[in-house]
Amino acid sequence: MSAMSISSLGGGDAAWRQGTAMNAARPAGASGGPATAGAGGKAQEAGAGAADTLSEAEQRQVAELAERDREVRAHEMAHVAAGAGLVTRGASYTYQTGPDGQRYAIGGEVGIDTSPGRSPEESLSKAERIRAAALAPAEPSGQDRQVAAQASRMASDARMEIARREFEQGGAGTEAAATRDGPGYRGMRAAQAYSAALAPGQGPTLSATA
């Protein structure tokens, strides 16, 4: 079973790496996960105290990172919801530590099964679901669109295979009814040869690169 990652928003943007050197200079432990309330709400008080000491520029960066975090999580959850039954690995995130010591998601990915089905009909249905999952977010990323394009090719291959099979099945009935010496038989064979020349030489394929 092959799989492809559907990524969100290109988390490596330089705009979201700014301040990294400043964050690295902060005390050990500042890069941990989001604060959770402990006894007496001390963690919340500590977070509030840290926010009070941030410069105006740092506060802006925290606001931007928080907004980015919301966008990334909504993006990945859209993939998961639309890809029900196809998801091979739930959402995983890439984080950046903000000036406030909190971690914010700046990128993510969801693993999705992209292998063909056991029949052309199953492959067609699956390709349509893969495409829907890839394009589910409000703003699909470049990789999302790449996955959708590959799913479209998979669907096209499946449709051609279905058409070829139906033509051959229909031709078999016509052949039985036609006489071998009649023009109907010769026309049918010519049509079959023409169709075979147009058909692709290989079955459905879909690459599985992350």
From TrEMBL:
Q: Which domain of life is it from?
A: Bacteria
Q: Where is the composition biased (Basic and acidic residues)?
A: 57-76, 119-131, 156-168
Compositionally biased residues, Low complexity: 24-51
**A Pfam family assignment:** SprA-related
The record ties this protein, via InterPro entries, to:
SprA-related
Protein's name in the database = Catalase
Q: Disordered: where is this region?
A: 1-76, 97-185
